Amino acid sequence: MSTTRLLLLFAALTFAACNYTIKIKDGNTAHERKQYSTAIPMLEKDFGRAKTRSEKGQLAYRIADSYRNTGRDEVALQWFALAYQNNYGAEALKGQAYTLKNWNATPRPKKCSKTSVSRSEAHTSTARK
Prior knowledge:
Elements: H1 2-19, H2 27-32, H3 36-49, H4 53-69, H5 73-85, H6 90-105, H7 114-128
Helix pairs in contact: 3-4, 4-5, 5-6
């Protein structure tokens, strides 16, 4: 009987812990909690309000990191460059290089042009003759 109560108490506490969420009110907190999609608009808003270059560099880096972690590498590259321009330092270049490396390694569908289609059609039509 005692182990059953203990097991039920443990299950109830585990369920309650999983359902507890914290309201995120700023982009830095969202970024720290790895809620990157939530962080992006908040951080971009903060970037527009930033007064110093170092503050803009820090925010640009967090924005770039958020975009990279959501799979939007093209936009992340622009923000990493902006972070470096705003004196964030070598870490911005490192993030940019890492993003470029992963972006170039990602297979993308090839674009077909009319000339490549007509060449393949010509090849099959000559093969049939």
